[in-house]
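Colleagues,

Please find the record for the two-part complex below.
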Amino acid sequence: MTNASNKSNRRHLVSQVEEELLRYIQDSPVLVGEKIPNEFDLSQKFNAGRSTIREAVKSLASRGVLEVRQGAGTFVLSPSTVEDDPLRLARYTDKLQLALELFDVRLMIEPGIAELAAMNANDDDIAEIVRLCDETEELYLAGYDHVRKDIEFHKKIAHCSRNRVVEELVPLIVSAVFTFANVTHRLLLHETIETHRAITDSIAKHDHTGAKCAMEMHLIYNRQMIMKLMKQEKTY
Amino acid sequence: MTNASNKSNRRHLVSQVEEELLRYIQDSPVLVGEKIPNEFDLSQKFNAGRSTIREAVKSLASRGVLEVRQGAGTFVLSPSTVEDDPLRLARYTDKLQLALELFDVRLMIEPGIAELAAMNANDDDIAEIVRLCDETEELYLAGYDHVRKDIEFHKKIAHCSRNRVVEELVPLIVSAVFTFANVTHRLLLHETIETHRAITDSIAKHDHTGAKCAMEMHLIYNRQMIMKLMKQEKTY
């Protein structure tokens, strides 16, 4: 094997272990602030060499998930990466309360953003929004993780507002969709898929009031899901 | 003179020259991207030693106003400091259009924020909001610069929302008030003072709908002022 393909295989191995480790942190009950198993245990768990583990840990540290404290061990800083959660909302532990606060703000901004998008989207924008809506729905129906596509859908709508100040709100929207997906364990309501479609159709027709209302409904359905989860939490 | 008081005098001198230089950049027609006069000319202009000028320039560079390019000179990066304009909106040159885009977003978020503040402000918060409202009005009536106090007023209301996601919007509000003050040359409408008072009174009575409406009126009056300025610009 050449040196170059050796290197590329190695990089592939590291990123594979890195993704496994990330999923382990997200799915298992390793809480924020808790220590993860040591290098030796991890190398056994993931069936990888210690140097591979070390590189994967280093990479997850640079992505904001882990923190290596010299002499003390490696700790979970956040269950999510900076790409997924630019506002680092995962640092808060009262997830459902945070999700409610997020929806109060999303309800302030996203209906108005959808309204602007319906006024300003051009044909290319509309084709892209339709594509993202279709793809999110396909992933949902096939039982795959739809969250990244869902984020792209909301981001694209924000870009179509053609408002430079709305662009400053995109990190908030990204963190919000991601946080919501986590508290609901990435379960999607059927109503979410339906209201995504209603938002898309309204924007495609440049029906700005329709887009505003569809976004409002989309957010209200999801907010109700949080209220339900909060009630369940209190019951147990 | 002791060494310590020498040092403190020097620091005082530098910050005095720094403020003069900042005002010169903000008031004179030095545009973003343009070069400012060289050290020698500045030292004559501000009647200060070249080392004082150098320190003042360095400090304004760290505050995001100037950029020193080795061998090429010192350039204006932004007419405002990072404290005043955390979103660096001053980088955009079509000020009136930007101000309109800002108001589209402020109209999305600030009425809802005022509503939350009216629901959640406690007695200490209300006393503070009344104080900031009084002080902004006093500065206005006395013909002094009210902008920093105005920013404090809007920031305090945002804090009273008791919503952690709203906190993420505070830099946007700060940059927005600052940008508006600049396009209107810090002229205040009488209506601004009146609607500030209406917002304050509504929050003090926990009248959340009143606070929401008063904030909406406040923003609409100011938006109309921008529309008027845009019309004037087109006429000339």
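Chain B touches chain A at residues 87, 89, 92, 98, 101-102, 104-105, 107-109, 112-113, 116, 163-166, 168-169, 172, 176 (CB under 8 Å).

Comments are welcome before we finalize the supplementary table.
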